[in-house]
Amino acid sequence: RHNKFSCMVNRGTCFTPRRNQNKSTSCCILRVARSRRHHCRHHCRHHHCRLSHCSSFLTHSRSRRLHFVFLSSRASSSSSLAAPFMRPFMCSSSSRDDLVEPTDVLCLSEIDGLTDMLNKHVQDCNVTGMTIQQALNDPGALPLLAKAEVVVADPPTFATVADRCESLKWFQSTFAGVDALFKAERRDYTATRLSGVFGPAMSEYVMMHVLALERGYATNANRQRRKEWGTRSRVAQASYRTLDRCTLGVIGLGDIGSRVAKVASSFGMRVVGCRNTVSAVPEGVEIVWPLEEVGSLLKESDYVVNLLPSTPQTRGLLGGGTLSAAKRGAVLINVGRGDVVDEASIIEALDAGHISHAVLDVFVSEPLPPDSPLWSHPGVTVTPHHSAESFPDDVVRVFAENLKLYRTGEALKHVLSWERGY
Questions:
Q1: Taking the mean position of all CA atoms in its chain, how far away is CA 22?
Q2: In what order do the strands lie in the sheet with 125-129?
Q3: Most buried by CB count within 10 Å: which residue of 35, 187, 190, 340?
Q4: Cα–Cα distance between 284 and 248 in angstroms, integer?
C-alpha cells in the first residue's frame, strides 16, 4: 500500500512529497533532474527508507533531457507504480517541434525592478527592459520597438512611442488608468488594464482620511506642536461622529469601488453608490443609482468618494454647480481622475459651504502647478497621486495570468474598451 501524493513538475526543479510518517508502508519519491548526460542523478533525503530498486524514465524537451526517477521501497512494483505518474510526461521525439517558443516581451516602465521580476517569475517569455529615454533617443531601440508584439508599460510612457510599435498585438498596462492611451492614434491592438490589485490600497487611503477628518487629526497635531492639551468639555467630546453614524457615497462601483464599499461597510458606515449599470449591487452597498442621478447620492452622503475613470461620459460630471447638491458639511475624496471635477468647481463649493473639505489625490494637471490655489486652501488636502501605487509583484501576477491566455489564443482578462474608454 503506497501513499497517494500530488506532484508538480517543472523544468529543472525537484519536487518531493512529504516524508512518509508510517514506516510500515513504502515511501514514494519523484525527482526531476535536468541533465545533458545519459545517466540519472538522484538521491533520497528520507534516510529511514530502505530503497532497493529504482526505475528511471527518459523524456525529451526541445533542448534538454529530463530524467524522471521513481523510487520505491518495493522492488517488485517500482516499474508498475512509476508508469501512471510518468505517462502524462512522456513524449516522443516527433512532438518536440510542436513546443511553442518563449514570447518576446518589451517592458517600458519606471517601476523599479519590474523587468527583472518579469524575467524571474514569469515562465515562457523573454523580457527586454527599456527606459523612455532609450526608446525616444537611442537609434538601437527602433528595431526593438518595431518588432515588439507584446509590451508591458506605463500608459503615459507607452503613448509617446505607440506609433513606433508596428507589430504590436497586446499591450499590458502597469496602471489602473489608461486614459493616456487615447492621446495616441493607435487603436489596432488589444490593451489590458492592471485590474484587481488596487482595491486594498485605495480602501486604506479612503478610510485613513475619513477617520483623520472625523477625529480631528490635524487639529490634535497642531495642538501638540503648541504643547496645548486642549479641552475635555462635553461639547468637545461630541465634536466627532463614530462611523456608524456616517454615510459613504461611492461614485464608480467597479473593482476598486466595490472594495472601498465593502471595507467602509465593515467599519459600520452606511454605503450608497453610483455606477453605469445598476443591475448588480455590490456587497455592503444599500442603494445604487445610475450616474445620471448622482445628485441623489450627493444629498445622502457625508463622504463622497469619486473612483470614476476619465471618459467622455465622466469628464466634468461633478463640475459646475453639481456639488451644490451635496449634503451640508460633506467631504469630497477624489481618487479617480482629476478631470471628473475641475479645480474651480472644488474651490467654489468649499467657499460656498456646499462641502466642508476636499481630499484630492488626482488633478487635471500633474504634478499640481505651484501656483494652484488648491495648495494653500485651508479646506483642501493634497496628496501626490499615491493613493494606490503599482507594485511590481502585482504587475507580474496579472501579466503572467494573461500571458497564459495569450499563448493559447484565449480571450484576455481586463481588456480595455476603446468605445467606453475604460
A1: 44
A2: 125-129, 103-108, 150-153, 170-173, 190-192
A3: 340
A4: 11
Backbone phi and psi for residue 306, each to the nearest 5 degrees, phi listed first = -95, 125
In 131-204, the DSSP E strands lie at 150-153, 170-173, 190-192
Do 17 and 28 form a contact (C-beta atoms < 8 A)? yes
Full pLDDT tens readout for the chain, 422 residues = 444 443 444 444 444 444 444 444 344 444 443 433 333 444 444 444 434 344 333 333 344 434 444 444 444 444 444 444 444 433 333 333 444 799 999 999 999 999 999 999 999 999 999 999 999 999 999 999 999 999 999 999 999 999 999 999 999 999 999 999 999 988 999 999 999 999 999 999 999 999 999 999 999 999 999 999 877 655 555 578 999 999 999 999 999 999 999 999 999 999 999 998 887 899 999 999 999 999 999 999 999 999 999 999 999 999 999 999 999 999 999 999 999 999 999 999 999 999 999 999 999 999 999 999 999 999 999 999 999 999 999 999 999 999 999 999 999 999 999 999 98
Q: Per DSSP, which regions of 52-178 are E strands? A: 53-60, 65-72, 103-108, 125-129, 150-153, 170-173
Strands 330-334 and 303-306: parallel
Closest of 3, 53, 58, 52 to residue 33, by C-alpha: 58
Q: What stretches of 173-227 show up as alpha helix (H) in DSSP?
A: 199-214, 217-225
- Residue 178, amino acid: V
Which of 380, 399, 284, 373 shows the shortest CA–CA distance to 332? 380
Instruction: Give the active site residues.
Output: 337, 366, 385
Q: State the cell numbers at 340.
A: 471628473
Q: State in Å, rounded, how far the first CA of the chain is from the last one.
A: 57
